[in-house]
Structures are given as structure tokens and as C-alpha cells.
Amino acid sequence: MPNIASRDLRNHTATVLDGVSRGETYTVTVHGRPVAELRRVSSQRRPAVPKADLVALLDRQRIDATLAADMAWITEGTTDELDDLG
């Protein structure tokens, strides 16, 4: 794993990032002391939840009664009275 001084990283960022994208790992140093490592980000993705499992999970959920009441209160009526303010 090559070391790279912070100054060199600043001056050669594109070159270093090209190396990182190819799988190289760098140790960044400040005044000769290691302070960080640069390595390629893992591209592992979490497996998707099958649609049937998601639908089953949502079907088991219960509506929060307080939230339902609040949403009904918020959405009742119209905004026509706001036109009179302008």
C-alpha cells in the first residue's frame, strides 16, 4: 500500500483517484504520519425485498388512529377562504 503525502494528494488528485478506481489503496500522510486510507468503495448492494414479501408486510400494518384523525382534520374543507386574503 503506497503512502502519499497530503500535498501530493492535493496536487495529483485525479491520478490518485484513477488508481483507487483500479483497486489501489493509498495511505495519506501528514508530516510523514499516516492519517487516512483511500480505497475503492465496495459496490455491494443490499438484496431487494421480493414484492410479495413487501406487500405481505404492508398488509399486516395497522393505521395509527391518531394520525388518521389528524389527516382527516387537515384535509377537510377547502382553501377557498385563502383567495379572499390576497
From TrEMBL:
Source organism of this protein record: Knoellia sinensis KCTC 19936
UniProt lineage: Bacteria, Bacillati, Actinomycetota, Actinomycetes, Micrococcales
Similarity section: Belongs to the phD/YefM antitoxin family.
Name by which UniProt lists this protein: Antitoxin
Domain of life assignment: Bacteria
Stored InterPro entries: YefM-like_sf
